[in-house]
């Protein structure tokens, strides 16, 4: 079988000890390896599409906001999860290993350096305050997590220095060509990471020019690899965590528990609607047709009428309502939580009970004005149904006086609908992942030409209901909600699905996957003139 070489090399920096930082030089060590793997022509063609983009710099900030992100959201999650998994399983066990989080500033600095396409650590002024691991490959595709695992695998050449061996400085015990990728990755006090992936059209790697080289840069803070120190303290996991963690521990890592407990889904709490009986007023008897007067035959050609347009099958997330429409007057469920209020509801009919949390019998639009979500000009409102409130407090806000009620009843809160300008790579997992009891996404504006973006950067997983790491805009084209020219879409985040079926629709082939982490979402069209 015909094959080609796929090369992968890595690099990390070794930092000077704090006490000797002014007198010791930064030591950088490098390592390389080669593997014989089958060629992936499709991937190389895909990567070559970015060759011109990778060489362009100096774009405006507005254009940068629409450009491809330096790392996929799914890769970012995989890198972070793998870091914490590896850090939690070190041997011997760590007593002070801190949970690692993603840092956007570190990602930005990694992006800036990756775009330089220079196979060396940098920039020099930043290396004094951060740690850095590098990797590059060409040929067969490798995920960023592949390189993270390769960094950790240097542990086979590393011997942990126990406290009895540190007098006062710990000896460096690395029997292989490189161990500093591993030690930076498991440095206990390094608790933030940010990475970037960049495709370099041409890159000089130790004197050889690599074309379409995939360059991975990971920046760490606080930096590790201090000479004379062990990467972590040995002991029972979480037994020596810093006081700032408040005794929190998760999966053998010092952890600050800032998450709130999830409540049961109260998204559908209303009672069934009582339908009104149909009208029984008899229809008037049809009148007898008049006899048409005789006319001369005409030779005018008959013009066939155009067939009547079929009603649109597209569904909408936002619903038009009136000033006095109550929450319990509307449909229930997650697809009935976004409403368009008309203008001039300030002095219209419709009672409002409560403050912040409103009784389900309240006028939706007047409650939204009372809460300051919209003004008398109307606008879009998102509704979140909540548990029964024991009572409702009276107040006067924004020209509307609400009423009090001291009786338990179903309630809701209102929120403003924001508009988000996305790019072809924006995902629901990134901007509005599903959270109980319910979640709201901003109204998303999609740019043009997302249909032609490669699936690696803009994946579409599923059909009708999509995995939340799918590209919103490309999935919207797949669903027929917008055209390739872009436009506005409404997004509804949903719970996790067991599986997703791939379908070819509107020129886009979606993927089939199962047992995925994260939630899902649906897409809805926006009515013309309905902003």
Automatic annotation (TrEMBL):
SUPFAM superfamilies: LCCL domain, PR-1-like. Residues 264-313 are annotated as: Disordered. Residues 288-303 have a biased composition (Basic residues). This is Cysteine-rich secretory protein LCCL domain containing 2. PROSITE patterns: CRISP_2, LCCL. Residues 317-412, 418-510 form the LCCL domain. Residues 1-34 form the signal peptide. The gene is crispld2. The keyword Repeat applies. Keywords: Disulfide bond, Repeat, Secreted, Signal. It comes from Oryzias latipes.
């Amino acid at each position: 079988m015909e094959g080609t070489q796929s090369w992968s090399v890595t690099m990390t920096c070794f930092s000077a000890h704090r006490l000797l930082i002014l007198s010791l030089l930064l030591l950088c060590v490098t390592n390389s390896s080669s593997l014989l793997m089958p060629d992936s022509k499709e991937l190389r063609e895909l990567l070559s599409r970015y060759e011109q983009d990778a060489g362009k710099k100096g774009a405006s900030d507005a254009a940068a906001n629409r450009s491809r992100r330096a790392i996929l959201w799914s890769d970012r999650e995989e890198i972070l999860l793998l870091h914490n998994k590896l850090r939690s399983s070190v041997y011997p066990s760590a007593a002070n290993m801190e949970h690692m989080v993603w840092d956007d500033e570190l990602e930005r600095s990694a992006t800036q350096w990756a775009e330089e396409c220079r196979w060396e650590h940098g920039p020099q002024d930043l290396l004094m305050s951060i740690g850095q691991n590098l990797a590059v490959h060409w040929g067969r595709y490798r995920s960023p997590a592949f390189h993270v695992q390769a960094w950790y695998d240097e542990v086979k050449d590393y011997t942990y220095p126990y406290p009895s061996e540190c007098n006062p400085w710990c000896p460096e015990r690395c029997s292989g060509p490189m161990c500093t990728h591993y030690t930076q990755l498991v440095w206990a006090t390094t608790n933030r990471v940010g990475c970037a992936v960049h495709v370099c059209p041409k890159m000089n790697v130790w004197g050889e020019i690599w074309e379409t080289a995939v360059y991975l840069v990971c920046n760490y803070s606080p930096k590790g690899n201090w000479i004379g120190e062990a990467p972590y303290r040995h002991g029972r996991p979480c037994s020596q965590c810093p006081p700032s963690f408040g005794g929190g521990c998760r999966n053998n890592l010092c952890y600050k528990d800032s998450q709130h407990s999830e409540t049961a889904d109260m998204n559908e709490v209303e009672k069934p609607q009582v339908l009104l009986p149909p009208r029984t007023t008899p229809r008037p008897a049809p009148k007898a047709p008049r006899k048409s007067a005789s006319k001369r035959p005409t030779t005018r050609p008959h013009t066939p009428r155009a067939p009547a347009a079929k009603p649109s099958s597209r569904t909408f997330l936002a619903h038009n309502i009136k000033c006095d429409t109550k929450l319990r007057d509307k449909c229930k469920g997650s697809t009935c939580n976004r409403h368009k209020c008309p203008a001039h509801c300030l002095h219209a009919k419709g009672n409002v009970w409560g403050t912040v949390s409103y009784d389900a019998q309240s006028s939706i639009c007047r409650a939204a004005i009372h809460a300051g979500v919209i003004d008398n000009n109307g606008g879009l409102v998102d509704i979140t149904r909540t548990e029964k409130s024991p009572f409702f407090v009276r107040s006067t806000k924004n020209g509307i006086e609400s009423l009090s009620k001291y009786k338990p009843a179903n309630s809701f809160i209102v929120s403003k609908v924001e508009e988000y300008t996305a790019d072809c790579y924006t995902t629901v997992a990134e901007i509005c992942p599903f959270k109980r009891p319910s979640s709201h996404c901003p109204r998303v504006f999609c740019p043009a030409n997302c249909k032609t973006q490669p699936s690696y950067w803009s994946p579409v997983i599923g059909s009708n209901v999509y995995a939340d790491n799918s590209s919103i805009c490309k999935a919207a084209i797949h669903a027929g909600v917008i055209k390739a020219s872009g436009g506005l879409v409404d997004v509804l985040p949903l719970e996790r699905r067991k599986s997703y079926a791939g379908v070819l629709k509107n020129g886009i082939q979606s993927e089939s996957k199962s047992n995925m982490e994260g939630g899902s979402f649906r897409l809805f069209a926006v009515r013309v003139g309905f902003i």
